[in-house]
Amino acid sequence: MDRLQRFLIGGLLTVLVAGLVVVRLMLDLNDLRRQENTQQVIERVARQVEMFRDARGFLPAGLDDFVLEVPDGFSDAEGDPIDAWGNSILYYRTGRGRAERYLIASPGRDGDFDHPPQQYLGHRSFSSNRGHPDRDTVLVGGRLVQGPEEAGRQ
Predict the structure, then answer these.
(1) Phi-psi category of 118—alpha, beta or left, where left has phi over 0 and alpha has psi -120 to 50?
(2) Domain ranges of the chain
(3) Hey, how many other C-beta atoms are within 10 angstroms of the C-beta on 89?
(4) pTM
(5) pLDDT(151) > 70
(6) Using an 8 Å Cβ cutoff, are 152 and 144 in contact?
């Protein structure tokens, strides 16, 4: 093999590797965008749950207790909220009276919750799942406890 052939093969391999790196970066950015969109939908649902509580004095039993408004593409055929991967967003309510709390969560890209969602009810601090799209995005009582952006901390 002469020098020109080796140079061409080396150049082609370099272009191939660079192309693979670009594809991987694009996929990572797409997942990050989906995480952030999911967080925004969860926060929007939480605001509506809070408005329901402010108006009635108690939390809704489920998200079908009121007309839920989510952005286009973030609800299933029945109108229930979904995350950016098409997974159902979970709403869970516990307690009574002043001890009443709620949780809104997405299982992330893989569609499986990392922990039973109720375990998040005791979380008080924020932890980021940024760059880990299979991890849950969880909001407890209007406060994000696990989500994709450090800036999302409340």
Answers:
(1) alpha
(2) 3-152
(3) 24
(4) 0.76
(5) no
(6) yes
